[in-house]
Amino acid sequence: MPFQATSHPDSAAVQAQLSRIAELEAALWQGGLNEALLGPYQAAFRELERLIAEQGEDRRHHFVVVIPVADSPRQLQACLDSLLTLCKVFGYGGLHQGRYRKVSVLLADDSSEPAAIERNLEIARAFDQSGITTHYFGIREQLALMQRLRGVDLDAIVGRHPEDAFGHKGQAITRNIAYLKLVEIQAAMAGEPLLFHTVDGDQEFQIKAATADGGRSLYAVNFFHHLDHVFSERDVQVLTGKVVGDPPVSPAVMAGNFLEDAIGFVLEMAAADPRKPYVQPGVDTGGSGEAAYHDMADMFGFQAGGEIYRYRCGVAGDPSNAKSFDDFTSRLDGFFHGGHPTRITWYRYQAVSHSVQPARTVYTGNYVFTPDALDWFIPFAPLRLRMSGPTMGRLLRSGIGERFVSANVPMLHKRTLATTGQSEFRPGVVSDQHNVDLCDEFERQFFGDIMLFSVERLTALGYPRRRQTPEQVLDTLDAMHAEMHAKYHARRQQILERLGVLRSLLQESGQWWHGRPELRAALRRFDVFTANMTHNFGKGSPCYARIDAPGGWEGWRNRQLEAIVGLHRDRQSWRQALDVLRDNRPL
Asked: What are the extents of the domains in the chain?
């Protein structure tokens, strides 16, 4: 289908208001955030909506926000609350009889706990009543849809699951099933220009900006307005944003750099007067360097900086060094649940229209696509490997080229709950009061890295357009396994060495924190942290035992081979399923 712009010609008043918004936006971020201009900036968009309504027909895109959720009602509530606030402060699409006309939600529930399912359904109903149309797509509805497609072989796309245990399929499988549901939603909204925006339930429609007193979470990006413009003015099928706040990767690949920062913090504290105020990092975006949180950033083409990132203390006022020491240790457990105390990603302003560029990675928690792009599902989902988004991105880049782009529309990512310091639900992480085991996630990360970089090498050879022989695929997988195995074990040695340094610094009897009874809990938290680091990365680690197990690689190798070679077959099955749903016909 040839590209056609969707927006209608704007009146002179609309054009003038768009110019005013551009001026306000430039002033809002000139020389750093000017919070005094945020209210007028938001109000200018609401005035824009009034002017567009006066024009008559509004041909801008309607956004269907797809949110998979699993046993995380509190995070879901926060995500939906942020969406409603976004709609209120910017007003995209306007209201008609108390409902937002250009935004709706598809909530795909992958929960298994009855209490969480009941709560998610309550949240969906309440949110629908708030003015944003919300489709609850629970286990029963998913099974009914899959029953309609029982004659199509979708096992390699959505897996096989018993009907009485259909929850916890994983984000990739749940998204693929939700994308099939989008076909029905598209049919029900025939004639409406649509975009599908898939997000994660632990994200919010805000950005995180660095400020002098720590940082702010703000409604400073009118996501739907900017996305509508990009898709209206450019031939784009898939656009990915990123995230700010917590990193989007596993602690399995962040342990090395966090240990460096922890050592730097302890050294800084050892040389400081515990009674004097802690010196906060400056108002900058330190920690926002591309993949600064990733131990193997070089694998993604980013230069490893090697610098230490300082901790930004969250205690209000002017906390002392002693209070900051205690505050830092309160964040240690959260690291194992996906937070990163020192390498927070901050928002960096760049006008969205100027930020659009060819992409190679899909952030599955923040990407937007046209109905035409429903032809692309998340590949290899039943393997339940991490890095499914980057792997999908390599295939998209090979398949649609410059119609796959990224833009500066990052969402706020909150891995952990403020009340517990832990994720509400995180598959692959097992924890009790003090102990955290990452082994399942660690294994899925290791073999996910092998799959990602194998696919990257195969796409350089023309895959998937050019079929690769099983021998070519196996050679690629084996070479990448050897390379990744060496990298993981080299990083393990670095972790062990730095862990020893950290322990020595903490145990030195002359350090001031040993003489302070109020910091005994802080020191215990450090003990728990180093014990968990040792369990997951040290000698005798069950995580490394998994990836080194005799015969373990052979099993993963065969499954990855079958998935890569079978992609052509799977895409045919997917198109068949789409045709069945589009034609609304039985098999």
From this structure: 1-59, 60-249+347-417
